[in-house]
């Protein structure tokens, strides 16, 4: 860096290393605890070195859980969380990009009012409308189903607003050129708008996937069947079971580590598009 002395560079790197260590240390301690026998955690014999039961503990957590402690296997919960997060992210993007397209490119009565009605729903998060939403889902017989877990969370005013802002940066000359070439609305949307919005869609997908993955309250309300448990609410149930049963904290820690892996993988795979989608300002 121009104008930066060697000492300043070293101090900057030390500060960054210290920040990373502070962030990573709790995760590393959880990982180490997940590799030791359960009794070692309560006895304080875990330390900072991984134990000998890495494969056995993770195989137990993924495949069978602990029937004596009432702990279900984690693999089905990971699959449920993946399906729910994927459906929520894809549904939010599909609905939001179409509504933003309608608001930006079609001229119809009360168009501005329609946009602000969508925008105003930002004031009504899930927690505020959770009781009437639960009643509707229950009357439609969607409890204990993927539809009940995902459909009430799909509409997104934030994503609609972000796509509207993206579309407003697209030059009018491009729209006029497409009209002159005979492109209809769907052709213009599919072959021009979608490719231009690729990085924004990727960035939004990462954010919405994490949103869907981390849902806790709504799955807790609409699922009583263990086959539809998500991993986040599963961790809470595991903690409750571990506090009452034999020492199974090694399984709780293994579940927490496993629950982190899919979101980290999604971010790692889409990192380049994610950063470009957040920083790109012109089309």
TrEMBL record:
Domain ABC transmembrane type-1 stretches: 78-270
Entry keywords, A to Z: Cell inner membrane, Cell membrane, Membrane, Transmembrane, Transmembrane helix, Transport
A Gene Ontology biological process term: transmembrane transport
Subcellular location: Cell inner membrane; Cell membrane
InterPro entries: MetI-like, MetI-like_sf
Family annotation (CDD domains): TM_PBP2
Residue spans crossing the bilayer: 7-31, 82-106, 113-134, 146-167, 188-213, 248-270
Keyword Ubl conjugation: no
Annotated membrane topology: Multi-pass membrane protein
Pfam families on file: BPD_transp_1
GO CC terms of this entry: plasma membrane
SUPFAM superfamilies from the UniProt entry: MetI-like
UniProt subunit comment: The complex is composed of two ATP-binding proteins (UgpC), two transmembrane proteins (UgpA and UgpE) and a solute-binding protein (UgpB).
Annotated family: Belongs to the binding-protein-dependent transport system permease family.
Entry function: Part of the ABC transporter complex UgpBAEC involved in sn-glycerol-3-phosphate (G3P) import. Probably responsible for the translocation of the substrate across the membrane.
Name of protein: sn-glycerol-3-phosphate transport system permease protein UgpE
């Amino acid at each position: 860096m121009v104008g930066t002395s060697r000492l300043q560079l070293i101090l900057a790197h030390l500060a960054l290393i210290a920040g990373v260590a502070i962030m990573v240390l709790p995760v590393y301690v959880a990982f180490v605890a997940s590799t030791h026998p359960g009794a070692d955690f309560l006895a304080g014999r875990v330390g900072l070195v991984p134990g000998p039961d890495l494969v056995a503990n993770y195989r137990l957590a993924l495949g069978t859980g602990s029937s004596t402690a009432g702990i279900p296997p984690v693999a089905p919960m990971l699959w449920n969380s993946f399906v729910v997060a994927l459906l929520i992210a894809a549904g939010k993007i599909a609905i939001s990009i179409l509504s933003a397209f309608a608001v930006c490119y079609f001229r119809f009565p009360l168009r501005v009012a329609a946009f602000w009605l969508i925008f105003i729903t930002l004031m009504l998060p899930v927690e505020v409308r959770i009781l009437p939403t639960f009643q509707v889902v229950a009357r439609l017989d969607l409890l204990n189903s993927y539809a009940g877990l995902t459909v009430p969370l799909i509409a997104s005013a934030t994503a609609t607003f972000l796509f509207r802002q993206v579309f407003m940066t697209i030059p009018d000359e491009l729209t006029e050129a497409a009209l002159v070439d005979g492109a209809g609305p769907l052709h213009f949307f599919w072959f021009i708008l979608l490719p231009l919005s690729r990085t924004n869609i990727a960035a939004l997908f990462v954010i919405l996937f994490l949103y869907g993955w981390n849902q806790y309250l709504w799955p807790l309300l609409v699922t009583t069947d263990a086959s539809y448990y998500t991993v986040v609410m599963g961790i809470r149930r595991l903690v409750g079971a571990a506090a009452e049963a034999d020492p199974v904290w090694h399984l709780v820690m293994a579940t927490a580590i496993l629950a982190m892996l899919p979101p980290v993988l999604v971010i790692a795979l889409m990192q380049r598009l994610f950063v470009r989608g957040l920083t790109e300002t012109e089309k």
